[in-house]
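If your schedule permits, I should be very grateful for your opinion on a structural question. What I wish to show you is a protein chain and, alongside it, a tokenised description of its three-dimensional fold. Would you kindly read the sequence against the tokens and tell me how you understand this chain to fold? Here, with my thanks, is the record as I have it:

===
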Amino acid sequence: MFDDRADAAAALAERLDEWRGHHPLVLAIPRGGVPLGHVIAQRLGGELDVVLVRKLGAPGNPELAVGAVDEGGGVTVAPFAHTLGADAAYLEAETQRQRAAIRARRAQLGTSRPALDPAGRVVIVVDDGLATGATMMAALRTVRARKPQTLVCAVPVAPQDTLDAVAALADAVVCVEVPRDF
């Protein structure tokens, strides 16, 4: 598949070449998306910023997303969340934890400059891969609300069913590898 994130970023940047010359805004989802976003922004002649979203982890398995929360406060919950034990009380508590984490991350990034405005621009939202897609979907909804000209989801690897779900929220989806058994 890929040797490392640099290899994944190079392959993804090549697939995104049609947006070279459009001065795209590349919004990376921290942490994994940032190294990829850096390479993509450089290769496409764009600008790099971050979009802050956090996954809502499943009870007992925080790496499994049952939803996501965005910096604007929007919450997305997967339809299967309740089957994993994520009841309303759990989701509310997890949402509050993740909102606090977003505030802390924004403070850590500092306020030396405002976030770049996606309005009227080609915007490429990049992460280092998708599993459930909850975090990417939250990011896409957040960016879409700010009226980009074109909204692109870009990842090096993801399962087909997740790409299908994400496609409803983006104008284009670019993925280098779609493993059969994810």
Summary: The chain has two domains: 5-52+115-177, 53-109. The CA atoms of residues 153 and 173 lie 5 Å apart. The beta strands are 25-28, 47-50, 53-58, 61-70, 75-77, 122-126, 150-157, 172-177.
